[in-house]
UniProtKB/TrEMBL annotation:
The chain crosses the membrane at residues 6-26, 58-77, 83-103. This is DUF3784 domain-containing protein. It comes from the Bacteria. Keywords: Membrane, Transmembrane, Transmembrane helix.
Length: 104
């Protein structure tokens, strides 16, 4: 039986697609209410509609371009799975810190 390896470029592409779909769902809702299902959610973002909107704008505004660039970089200069995973985890921590500081 052939063992298949997980291609990090595929995972990055899937994350990018999921982010774009989630952003689309968020944009379809004209009220942009605080959602239980879609978007960046933390205690700080759910305290008010203003915080919610600001957090979503920052989350999608930073995340979609970041993953688009990461997919392109990995396409032209293939990254090892470990490096790609480190970048993704680092991004997740960084985006949380950035958003929470700006909501503070």
């Amino acid at each position: 039986m052939k063992e298949e390896n997980i291609d990090m470029n595929s995972i990055e592409s899937i994350i990018l697609i999921v982010l774009i779909v989630a952003w689309g769902i968020y944009m379809v809702d004209p009220t942009h209410k605080v959602s239980r299902w879609v978007g960046y959610r933390s205690e700080g973002t759910r305290t008010s509609l203003v915080n919610w909107k600001r957090a979503q704008k920052m989350f999608y505004g930073i995340s979609i371009p970041f993953f688009a660039v990461l997919v392109l970089i990995n396409y032209f200069i293939p990254l090892s799975n470990l490096v790609a995973a480190f970048i993704i985890v680092g991004w997740a921590v960084a985006i949380m810190i950035i958003i929470e500081i700006h909501l503070g």
